[in-house]
Specification:
Layout (H helix, E strand, L loop, with lengths): L4 E7 L5 H11 L10 H14 L3 E3 L2 E7 L6 E12 L9 E9 L4 H16 L1 H8 L6 H4 L2 H9 L8
Parallel strand pairs: 1-4, 3-5
Antiparallel strand pairs: 2-3, 4-5
């Protein structure tokens, strides 16, 4: 069975929120297999962001888009130490930007991933580690505990 979940991490240089979202979508390899649906996904994430900011505060945003053709949950993580002008609920810049791709048919999988992400970013040690990783091999050094917890989650069967 194919993986029901995947993640990828990339640095983000952009400071505009829509450009930063695009940089994560283009820079995180987890979205590469969306192929012709990548632009549809990008538009879905932008539409959601226009409705209401996904900047949850404390330097974190969790942008997301849903398409029926997405076969498994994908999570891209972009890190910008200088901050993205994201118009977050607390008015502070975003340094940690998650972008989640999912299907509307399996909302529970999205919610489980969201819960794990929220628990992880509330942990100050994990946030500090995430923000301190800026060398070429940073993906391999990213918080093992946090990623292992994500991978261990049962996101359900996504056979569509």
């Amino acid at each position: 069975m194919d993986s029901l979940y995947g993640y990828s991490v990339c640095p983000v240089c952009e400071t505009d929120k829509f450009a930063a979202i695009d940089e994560v979508i283009d820079g995180c390899s987890i979205f590469d297999d969306l192929k012709e649906n990548k632009e549809r996904f990008r538009r879905a994430v932008h539409r959601r962001e226009i409705i209401e900011t996904t900047g949850i505060g404390h330097g974190v945003a969790i942008a997301h888009g849903k398409l029926p053709c997405i076969d498994h949950l994908r999570i891209g993580l972009g890190i910008n130490p200088k901050g993205i002008n994201y118009k977050s609920k607390d008015g502070k810049p975003v340094n940690i930007l998650f972008v989640i791709a999912s299907t509307p048919f399996h909302q529970i999988n999205y919610l489980k991933a969201l819960a794990v992400i929220l628990r992880g970013v509330r942990n100050s040690d994990i946030k500090k580690e995430v923000l301190s990783i800026f060398d070429p091999g940073f993906e391999a050094k990213f918080s093992k505990d946090f990623l292992e917890e994500l991978v261990k989650q049962d996101f359900g069967c996504l056979n569509i």
